[in-house]
Design a protein that fits this description.
The two termini are 30 Å apart. Strand 2, helix 3 and strand 3 form a beta-alpha-beta unit. The longest helix is centred in the last third of the chain and has 21 residues. The protein is built from 13 helices and eleven strands. It has 336 residues and is an alpha/beta fold. The radius of gyration is 21 Å and the shape is globular. Bound molecules: acetyl coenzyme *A. Acetyl coenzyme *A binds next to helix 7.
Length: 336
């Protein structure tokens, strides 16, 4: 697929260093072999060297190009623990507790990134989203000027007439359960920027609701109306409109009927859902019933690229997510 091909080619050029905290997990090791063979990124696996090597040997995997670090014995523990205490002493974090947290690869990996010892992280093949995200929120935090991390999906359709040459961008489908109007506005602006940066599309953002332009009155509708206004102020050049129903966003005739004169209705390529329930259920409906390929969630708004996998992920999902993470790290370095 065109988008992934470009992302992988770019990752090969960037040669970023990605840490995989779930180093004893078989899909992660299979992905590591593929990533190293294709030179997509430099990899550090976290876990006990003897355990990782014996799993790799049993599976016939060649992963000697990866660095292996045991979070429980690594010589950087003191440095990382001190960084942790510095960042969270106001939350009562002691050095003793920091050392304990560092035994958890999900904390150790985040501290590697914070200390500049890795460029990005991919995890979640065996850990729940919240457990992957919490250490990242606490120590890596958000980009300056951004208050909320969210997750987008690139939805790829066989029908090239849909969206932008067969691609739509959906958000937030992964992180923020119940965003307020300001947070929703930020999600819209950040998603449009990510869509442009990663997929090189000109975003036309539809703020989704069960109402189009006042067809229903409810506080949930008011939130989307308010978010649309805030987002337009945040980025006056952005093509954004709402509130609108999904059919008004995507079908030209319906868009013209329900939102006449809108520059977005009927031709949206970025769909911003009003909350995580609709976003998460929505992308899975499209993936499972329409057979679209769902690439993501790509987390955005974090000060360093950290991405979460679904626990049902395949080996190629991990390979692709490492490439996406490397692209995000590359952009960050260029910006910084
Ligand atoms: N962006 C940035 N920071 C955040 C965010 C966010 N979206 N949410 C929480 N934080 C920060 C808080 O400010 C807090 O920081 P602090 O400790 O420095 O004060 C820290 O993270 C912890 O905040 P809590 O409110 O205690 O967060 P909690 O751990 O309860 O929840 C979480 C955060 C885990 C992300 C929660 O919102 C969640 O579970 N979301 C749903 C994730 C999920 O299950 N998604 C669906 C599956 S993914 C898929 O299907 C693709």
């Amino acid at each position: 697929m065109e988008l992934l091909k470009k992302i992988i080619e770019n990752a090969v050029k960037l040669q970023n260093h990605i840490v995989l905290p779930e180093g004893t997990e078989i899909r992660t090791l299979k992905a590591t072999e593929q990533i190293l063979n294709s030179k997509i990124a430099k990899i550090t696996l976290l876990g006990k060297k003897s355990v990782i090597e014996s799993i790799a040997m049993k599976e016939g995997l060649q992963i000697s190009g990866a660095r292996i670090i045991d979070p429980e014995t690594d010589s950087n523990r003191q440095k990382y623990a001190e960084i942790m205490v510095e960042l969270r002493k106001n939350k009562g974090l002691t050095l003793e507790k920091a050392y304990e947290l560092l035994n958890d690869p999900l904390y150790f990996s985040v501290l590697m990134i914070k200390a500049g010892d890795a460029d990005g992280e991919v995890a979640g093949a065996i850990n729940a989203t919240g457990d992957v995200l919490r250490p990242a929120f606490q120590y890596v935090k958000t980009l300056p000027g951004v208050s909320v991390v969210s997750g987008l999906f690139f939805m790829i359709f066989k029908d090239k007439n849909l969206g932008d040459n067969g691609m739509l961008v959906f958000a937030d489908c992964a992180v923020m359960p119940d965003p307020d109007a300001l947070q929703l506005a930020e999600i819209a602006v950040t998603t449009a920027a990510s869509a442009k940066a990663i997929a090189n599309i000109e975003p036309r953002v539809a703020m989704l609701s069960f109402s189009t332009k006042g067809s229903a009155q409810h506080e949930l509708v008011d939130k989307v109306v308010e978010a649309t206004k805030i987002a337009a102020k945040m980025n006056p050049e952005l093509l954004i409109d709402g509130e609108m129903q999904l059919d008004a966003a995507l079908v030209p005739e319906v868009g013209q009927l329900k939102a006449p004169g809108s520059k977005v209705a009927g031709r949206a390529n970025v769909l911003v859902f009003p909350g995580l329930e609709s976003g998460n259920i929505g992308y899975k409906l499209v993936q499972r019933l329409a057979g679209a390929e769902a690439i993501g969630p790509v987390l955005q708004g974090m000060a360093a690229p950290i991405n979460d996998l679904s626990r049902g992920c395949s080996v190629s999902d991990i390979v692709n997510m490492v490439a996406i993470t490397s692209n995000q790290a590359g952009e960050k370095k260029e910006k910084g």
